[in-house]
């Protein structure tokens, strides 16, 4: 049993057996590819192409729109057909570059990469910035910003988030089975930036095979260690992961760097490795197409911009009519009303559920059972926060640390009265943060 | 007309839910009370079964009637009314008149529960509220205990009057008392069942019993004498109260520090009532008074979120 864990959390059905044993399949896109200009946190990228332009694989099509932003590259060769708003997984319309694939896959010439040993720290960060690497676990935070903390000498741990605690997803698992050396390569690049840091590969202990494999591969790496984590959702939540690995707890106002940590997701490290050691952009994401409604659930290696509907066809289509499609996992993913949206840097999965638990559950009165309190990884009282949220009681919501919520949804999952706890808290949290900002601005104005 | 396309469900995450429902919880607690109920019927005879059935059925009926009169959706299928009825029945003396049971369940369901907003809104345990109401209103009837057709005092009253009690019988339950409180073994068996299913845990009952034990050793006048201590722990409603009434979700604090404070208050109050009052029992009153203190306990109990940092003075964050 593993000692690396946090208190709280839940054990939902993980559905990983559906797709975990099948090798990743490469899929080539057809027709039009869509590249949203905002597929990361921060300012949207600015298009550098015009309608009618010919582009090649790996060509820059949009450049970072600010410091916290990221470059976007074309994953195919072809013609720019349009620059127009397009639906994305989160439901909104985002300005996107639409490219028609000529299926020739002509690639641009990349400059040869320098060996890692000869690269300076600045060059490594520059490569990560130049090739538009963002957090590929879902948040999409520009990695170059993360890799340049205020006091690099104070970073003690570089944590590879390979926990994959979200049910159903197996893309990180397949990556570690098929190319573990790329993940380790990514950690080495990051470790080069932080002289006092130790690398930790954090993997949940339901994946003992990859834990063993990683341990073998890092046996001769004095700076890298593999930590088996207790299998529990949300073990891969950034704050929970840092606590599990280092016993340091951070709150919403702190950054991982405040606890001496840099956390990068498995696939992000592979992208860092590619940017630094090959001097190339990442053009693919591994996407899990799964759920009980899919005929052949499995992982696909697909080019950014590919339409999800095509992927579903590749997975053998549907067994029956699903009640719900989720972009991402069942805990953190977004329900979508249409499959016409593209694979982006932060895509992880398409989950097709025959049965939607939420719609069939009847909400009843809270009986104060405390299951949400037991499950909350942030040690909050979700039932009370949700009721303060319903009454828009900002004072009590803040007093009970409502803004510390990490939106993991564990409270909603365990609630026997089927109350929409996480949903209520999430909306209130946004309002509370906005209100606090407003008040701070007012105070600043008065002075 | 074109075939209508089935619409997809779009909701905010998470998209999966645990199987357990409020109804399941109520059902499990009722099952957990079965050992005590069955032993009570075995111990006190068929009439005890009639008391249980009448109390449960009338409790469900009162809730049904209220829902109908108030034009509310019928809520009896969540099982909470049946549970309240059963708990009240287990707190009744075995030869109580049946109309008292019906009146008791009226007080529990209508006055304590529905008038305050129904499930989840009651400020004190409905079954115990009703029991205390009956104790005050029908002191004679509620103290009319009998075992094997012989009337007499409960072991705790006997002990207080200087009589000798049989500790072994008190643990097994072949003793006088209310229908469900006599057998420690049956109650603990049911409690273990509930703990196994994660419905209750030891935070409240453990603190409660421990605090009471310490209080008794200090103020009970007999120190840690095992004879008196066993009788105190096994006697009266302590076990039933600690495992099945004090753990009532609605009327107990939700956080761990809150539960501990609540358990300590329960232990002290029970001790005060048993040692210093004229009566021998005190569990029911201790629990309903502590129920009333829950909002205060919740306000006073320390709450620290994950990664909480003590606010620094001087604003140098």
The profile of the biggest β sheet of chain A is: 6 strands, mixed
Q: Number of folding domains of chain B?
A: 1
Assembly state (oligomeric): heterodimer
Rg of chain A (C-alpha, Å): 22 Å
Query: Roughly what fraction of the amino acids of chain A lie in strands?
Result: 15-25%
Order of strands across the main sheet of chain B = 1-2
Secondary-structure element order of chain B, N to C: HHHHHHHEEHHHHHHHH
Give the structural class of chain B: mainly alpha
**Helical amount of chain A:** 25-40%
- Assign the CATH superfamily of the largest domain in chain A: NADH-ubiquinone oxidoreductase 51kDa subunit
Identify the CATH class of chain B: Mainly Alpha
Q: In CATH, what is the class of the largest domain in chain A?
A: Alpha Beta
CATH superfamily of chain B: Ammonium transporter AmtB like domains
Kindly report how far apart the N and C termini of chain B lie.
66 Å
CATH topology of the largest domain in chain A: Rossmann fold
Proportion in β-strands of chain B: under 5%
Q: Roughly what is the average pLDDT of chain A, rounded to an integer?
A: 93
Largest interface (CB < 8 Å): A-B, 67 and 36 residues
| SSE class of chain A | alpha/beta
Please describe the topology of this protein.
The complex is a heterodimer of chains A (447) and B (317).
Chain A: E1 25-27, E2 32-36, E3 46-47, E4 54-55, E5 60-63, E6 72-73, E7 78-87, E8 93-101, H1 121-130, H2 143-146, E9 157-161, H3 171-178, H4 180-193, E10 198-204, H5 208-217, E11 224-229, H6 238-246, E12 261-265, H7 266-278, E13 284-290, E14 298-303, H8 308-314, E15 324-327, E16 334-336, E17 349-353, H9 357-360, H10 371-375, H11 382-390, H12 394-399, H13 410-414, H14 421-446
Parallel strand pairs in A: 1-14, 9-10, 9-12, 10-11, 13-17
Antiparallel strand pairs in A: 2-8, 3-5, 4-7, 5-6, 7-8, 13-14, 15-16, 15-17
Helix pairs in contact in A: 1-7, 3-4, 4-7, 11-14
Chain B: H1 22-32, H2 34-44, H3 46-69, H4 80-90, H5 98-113, H6 126-137, H7 139-142, E1 145-147, E2 150-152, H8 155-160, H9 167-172, H10 184-196, H11 203-219, H12 226-234, H13 238-245, H14 256-276, H15 283-300
